[in-house]
Amino acid sequence: xxxxxxxxxxxxxxxxxxxxxxxxxxxxxxxxxxxxxxxxxxxxxxxxxxxxxxxxxxx
Length: 59
What we know:
Elements lengths: L3 H25 L2 H10 L19
């Protein structure tokens, strides 16, 4: 008989392996599909923010 901890570890190992397989496959796909979908999304450019200030002396 298998313990709950061993079963949980085996399930986690299987899910982690499958997840890494999908992630690796996604990186192998052509970039053209990703670039085409990114081009259709609107681009928002925000102005540059400059933060100025003084440090107060600690008492």
